[in-house]
Amino acid sequence: MKNPLLVPELRDYLESDNHEALGLFLDSGHPRVIAEFLSALTPTEAWQVLGTGPLSLAAEIFSEMDEWFQADVAEILSRRELAQLVTEMSPDDRVDLLARIPENRRLRILSALAVAEREDIRKLSSYHEGSAGSVMTSDYATLSPDLTAADAIDKLRREAPDKETIYYAYVVDEGRRLIGFASLKDLILAPAHELVEEIMNEGVISVRVTDDQEFAARQIQKYGLIALPVINGGDALVGIITHDDAIDIITREHTEDLEKFMAIQGSHDAASYLRTPALTHFKNRVLWVVGLAAAGLVSGGILHHFEATLSHLLILALYMPMLADTGGNTGSQSATVVIRALALNEISAKDMLQVLGKELKIALMLAAVLACVAWIKVQLLSGGSPIPGGFTLPQVGGAIVLALAIQVITSTLVGALLPMGAARLRLDPAVVASPALTTVVDITGLFIYFTCARLILGV
């Protein structure tokens, strides 16, 4: 939503020092919308515009900018300016920003922060990348169980400006052990004198700091939560993951799975495609492409082995693409649904036999339909054409149809077996399945095709 038509107007305001107009612009819409408008400016210009508003609003808009633009803006800021900006940012956003800053500058920024902020950043940064602890925020509202509903609302009213969300307030004991939660709605509707411990819900859905971030995001998605509490080994509340963070996590995981499925390596960061150097794209793609091209030599070996068969019946070459394409399509379908089921924890490696049994049933039905289609295609394309070697079209068609049916069955089973096998070996199914699938299907398809032709036609 970068609006180039707005850029000249903003630059005119900057040149004329019209701070009032720029301040009104910053406050004119959702921070994300303003952030996208500012991304059309240079980093220096964007920071000049942000500087015309309150620092808290500037931090909120800055947090909504794309990561690459945040890094560009941070690079042009002085130590003091960046320290002030970081102080105003939410805990999880400032940890992410500092992680993208060179270490020597990061240390200088940290030394300029207050002790409380520095310690909070240290704690949040200590959690393993990809864990729930690494994406949580320490900005959450807590209540004591002995507060009345009226006192609890007063407390939330005072703390609201500094908290990520107050729609959920988490009830903790003296040791900060999570014992329940109360929604803002529950507190408002409760009698003013009623205690929080009588209002709160004890069935709290939570995750551990060591749990995978995708699991945490799926919990928010599954139960429709606004926020999810994160606890440590002692059941003490240490942070929350909000629904907007969960959406970001799921988006990143989808991007990562998609790129892995297409045999693309690298960090799988959500960086801009155009801003990523071509050399980086090349490095991320070349290894698997070269490896699979080398593995394709096996296909060439099979063709060489059955060269005599192919020379006797050149008609077989006409239907080789159909066999390869059909096998690849059915195998990819099978692999996709199995990988998705594994990712959503609908199945696990121990369900391998059940999955293979189900895919076999599907493969048999697909094979029957595709065999009929193949038979019709052979009759239409090759009907009336001379068949060398004294063979009849039904004989050749029978060999092609049988090979196609077997190929569909084997490809479907291989498509299911590869990700299930990877899961059992504790490997990433998306990484193993897709790159290997095409090569395996091509090799098995050629072998099946010419073996059927040799057995049925005797060539």
Automatic annotation (TrEMBL):
Record keyword Oxidoreductase present: no
UniProt key word Transferase: no
Top-level taxon in the UniProt lineage: Bacteria
Subcellular location: Cell membrane; Membrane
InterPro entries associated with the record: CBS_dom, CBS_dom_sf, Mg_transptr_MgtE_intracell_dom, MgtE_N_sf, MgtE_transporter, SLC41_membr_dom, SLC41_membr_dom_sf
Domain CBS: residue ranges: 136-198, 200-256
Family, similarity comment: Belongs to the SLC41A transporter family.
UniProt protein name: Magnesium transporter MgtE
Organism (species): Desulfoluna spongiiphila
